[in-house]
Amino acid sequence: MNPKFELKQKVKIVATGGEGVVDGIWESVGSVPKYNIVYYDSTGRRAESWLRADELEAM
Predict the structure, then answer these.
(1) From CA 43, how far away is CA 30, in angstroms rounded?
(2) Is residue 5 part of a domain?
(3) pLDDT in tens, 6-31
(4) Is 40 contained in some domain?
(5) Domain containing 44: what range?
(6) 29 secondary structure, DSSP code
(7) Over 60: is that where the pLDDT of 34 sits?
(8) Could you tell me if residue 20 is inside a domain?
(9) What letter would DSSP give residue 27?
């Protein structure tokens, strides 16, 4: 079972080890939910990515 994350929840991005915050949730019938994660990249700039639950860890 995929973990569920809530809006504004802090999460760890598995691929980069970085931290972000859930800013949006996209779910459609029969597919894995995706989460819009807002984070700051290595240069300190704000960035966003849509990631699946299995690409994230709760903090």
Answers:
(1) 37
(2) no
(3) 999 999 999 999 999 999 999 877 77
(4) yes
(5) 10-58
(6) T
(7) yes
(8) yes
(9) -
Asked if residue 4 belongs to a domain, the reply is: no
Give pTM, 2 decimals: 0.85
Give the long-range contacts of residues 16-21, CB within 8 A, separation 24 or more. 19/59, 20/49
Closest CA to 33 of 45, 42, 25: 25
DSSP state of 17: -
Contacts of 49 (CB under 8 A, 6+ apart): 13, 20, 36, 37, 39
> How far apart are alpha carbons 20 and 55 in whole angstroms?
12
Contact 58, 9 (CB under 8 A): yes
Q: What does the angle CA 25 – CA 32 – CA 53 come to, to the nearest 5 degrees?
A: 65
**What pLDDT score does 2 carry?**
60
